[in-house]
Amino acid sequence: MAAMGFMDKAKEMLGQHDDKVDQGLDKAGDLAKERFAGHDDQIDGAVGKAKEATGEGDTTAAPAEPPADQPPPA
């Protein structure tokens, strides 16, 4: 069996600690917003894509609410 490569190990670690990675991305996004005022939408988009690319997605966001006109799934 071949040894696990660096990238495989990094991906595994990101998946195991996705909540911490998401918190770090949020902090980096906040710092970027301070430095590059007026680009909040672009920064939020980049942070969102980074969260999707790591682990299980954004673990720091609140769960999505079902639309008001539809009952929640059973």
From TrEMBL:
Instruction: Locate the coiled-coil region(s) and give their ranges.
Output: none
Write down the superkingdom of origin: Bacteria
Q: Where is the composition biased (Pro residues)?
A: 64-74
InterPro entries with a match to the protein in the record: Antitoxin_Rv0909/MT0933
Q: Name one Pfam family in it.
A: MT0933_antitox
* Region of interest: Disordered: 1-22, 35-74
Composition bias, Basic and acidic residues = 8-22
| Protein name, entry field | Antitoxin
Source organism (scientific name): Pseudonocardia dioxanivorans (strain ATCC 55486 / DSM 44775 / JCM 13855 / CB1190)
